Amino acid sequence: MASAGANKKLVVAVVGYTGGVGSCLLDAMKKIGLPPFALVRSSTMKVGHGAASEVPTDYQALSASLLKEGGIPVIADVTASSSVQEHYEGWLKQGISVVAANKGIFAGPEEKYLALLAAAKEGNCRLLHETTVGAGLPTLGTLQGLKASSHDIVTVEGILSGTLAFVLGQVAGGKKSLSQAVKEAKELGYTEPDPRDDLNGMDVARKAVILARLAGMRGVELSGMNIESLVPAPLRDCSVEEFMSKLGEHDSAMAERVAMVESGGGRLHYAAKVNVKENKVEVGLQSCEASHPFNNAGPDNMVAITTNFYTRPLVVQGAGAGGDVTATGVLADILACANQPPIAS
Fold it and tell me: Which residues are catalytic?
């Protein structure tokens, strides 16, 4: 089985190398002189340093080749595929470290998540997924490092959607209505093709599940969470066109809520709050007093971690999306497979 050590070479397979993040990852690896051992996509793969010929993708053959090569085997998965994630447990048990950018399995059923942790322990290897929350921001590593170094995590709060941060920034102070802000965000390419996929809060909720689990909470399931949607109930099942045309009919409710919060000197943000002490996770609009770090986030992602030692939150802030920053976060995880021992979750 592979063991982490700086004197061993990294043997890296990149799954999803033709995608946006995958292309950026290969560029970043080239920049630091780390050649990929294998390049894998859904139908074909190239295995071996400098391999030119493609063969049908076979994950069993891929893992065997990685282990045969020696060194520290790592599979970096930068796809959005749930089928690739089904192989994680087997790879980890064989001693192959897994670096992932897809939040799916980490926010899914807790039973599967805990099985991955057990597999990594059994294989004496790493399971790292820093970029599943905040792209390249060192959020999860910071949280794990605090927990491993005897901090008691009290709360983890996060502005985890650049789209929702933009929309809430536009409606602040009554500058624009909700429908105007959403229309502008869509025109700028900040939203999904259907803006309701951002406004329903599900992406933020998945990230909240990941933060809660890494903070030490158990029993957190997406299906049992109370997630506040910004999509008016009458517009949840209609076409995108109808949603966009009728959203203005619901502007007043948001305007009133913003005005009420701001009249007391606060600001309204869409955020996740993980309260470890109370074993509670909240996702939705939060009223934040003037001194709260969120009021300085602007368009960035921001995570504020409060512990028994950091009673004033430790803040991680920066761009939470983009191929290059995500790729550098994945690369940092790949390098950590060689240079750091496993950290208990």
Answer: 207
Q: Where do we find the tokens 């942790």?
A: 117
Structure token digits, residue 28: 């970043």
Residue pointed to by tokens 């927990």: 147
176-183, Cβ contacts within 8 angstroms, sequence gap of 24 or more = 177/248, 177/251, 177/254, 177/255, 178/230, 178/247, 178/250, 178/251, 178/254, 178/255, 179/244, 179/247, 179/248, 179/250, 179/251, 182/244, 182/247, 183/244
Contact (CB, 8 A) for 122 and 92? yes
CA separation for the pair 22, 165 (Å, rounded): 27
Among 345, 340, 333, 258, CA closest to 6: 340
List pLDDT tens digits, range 114-157. 999 999 999 999 999 999 998 889 999 999 999 999 999 999 99
Residues in the chain: 345
Contacts of 305 (CB under 8 A, 6+ apart): 142, 143, 146, 153, 155, 156, 313, 314, 315, 316
- Distance CA(172)–CA(38), nearest Å, equals 49
Residue 12's beta-bridge partner residues? 74
Q: Which residues contact 223 (CB under 8 A, 6 or more apart)?
A: none
Q: Are 142 and 310 in contact (CB under 8 A)?
A: no
- Extract the runs of DSSP E, i.e. beta strands, from 41-152: 44-47, 55-56, 72-77, 97-100, 127-128
Read off the pTM: 0.91
Read off the pLDDT of residues 79-124 as tens digits, 9 standing for 90 and up: 999 999 999 999 999 999 999 999 999 999 999 999 999 999 999 9
Distance (Å, whole) CA 284 – CA 226: 9
- State how far the alpha carbon of 77 is from the alpha carbons of 48, 80, 266, 322, in Å: 17, 8, 41, 16
